[in-house]
Amino acid sequence: MTVINSIIAVIGTFIVAFFVGLWLPGLERKFVQARIQQRIGPPLSSPGFMAPIKFFFKETITPNTEMPRLYNALPIISILSVVFILLFMMPQMYSFAAFASIIGIIGLLKIEEVIYMFMGSLSKSVLSLRMAFPDIVKGAKHPETQRSYLEELSTKRAFRLIAFGSFPLYIAIFVPVLMTKSLYMSDIVAYQQIHGPVLFSLAGIIGAAVFFVGYMILLNEYPFSILKAKADVIEGPLLEYASKSRAYVYISRGFLMVVLATLFTTLFLGIPPNLMDWHSIVSLAVVLIFPILMASVSAFSPIFTYRQFYPVVVGSSILGVAALVVTFL
């Protein structure tokens, strides 16, 4: 009976997370950003629910790339990495100690980030189609001149995001680790059930603020959306994706919003995702609050340039380090 209950809990949690993730982009854009900016905005179901359905019925296009199958599989790999993060946060999976740990979670998050670099580096087309004529014309290309594509610029942006932008989130993740003196999710949750949530401490408050900055950066949301700056690289590495592959991109972002907020409740409140536990109501509330806060910040924010992006990331990282130091006091 216990095994059956565990299976029901795992499957039920995935279903709820998936369903909520489909509606969060609409909540973010319709009820927050649009209201603040005094515009109508898209329908609630459009960004996260109807858009993927629409793209599933679009004509499948083979992009101009050396490895089209891998290129179109990258959004699916991204979704799977996020799915496994949620899976190993569940109490039913704590027996998989190596995966149900901070190291395992960070590794899966890094896979999700690296996917953007592969997306940009593999594409050699414009809007998923090869140019109708050769782009090398006599006299147009000087000898030994390096040729590049728009997507290669987005790849460089993705590298900067991975190399610098993710520091705040990962530093904040280690605040509960130092307080509980364990890398395992089971120990972090058990510690807070006895001593109270990490959030209700000075280090926890600072760490939560830094975590939220990292949350926005990983979701590439204004003002941290250097990955898809509209000025020069429209939609960044996601530009070339069409039909079903683009539908997976939309689904992946909504699901990532749910999983990152759930990671926060697990690490800072000691409430893991578990459909069989009534405390999951708190987790669901955080899942809804985070996009609302993010949309509120984004509605008033421009796009950061590198000159603005780096100082904010460095400042947030320093705050995160301060939170780590406070845990020893």
UniProtKB/TrEMBL annotation:
Chief location of this protein within or outside the cell: membrane
One Pfam family cited in the UniProt record for this chain: NADHdh
Subcellular location: Membrane
Residue spans crossing the bilayer: 6-27, 70-90, 96-119, 158-178, 198-218, 254-272, 278-297, 309-328
Keywords tagged on the record: Membrane, Transmembrane, Transmembrane helix
Taxonomy, superkingdom: Archaea
Topology class, membrane: Multi-pass membrane protein
One cellular component term from this protein's GO annotations in UniProt: plasma membrane
PANTHER family: FORMATE HYDROGENLYASE SUBUNIT 4, FORMATE HYDROGENLYASE SUBUNIT 4-RELATED
Protein name in the entry: NADH dehydrogenase (Ubiquinone), subunit 1 related protein
Organism annotation: Methanobacterium paludis (strain DSM 25820 / JCM 18151 / SWAN1)
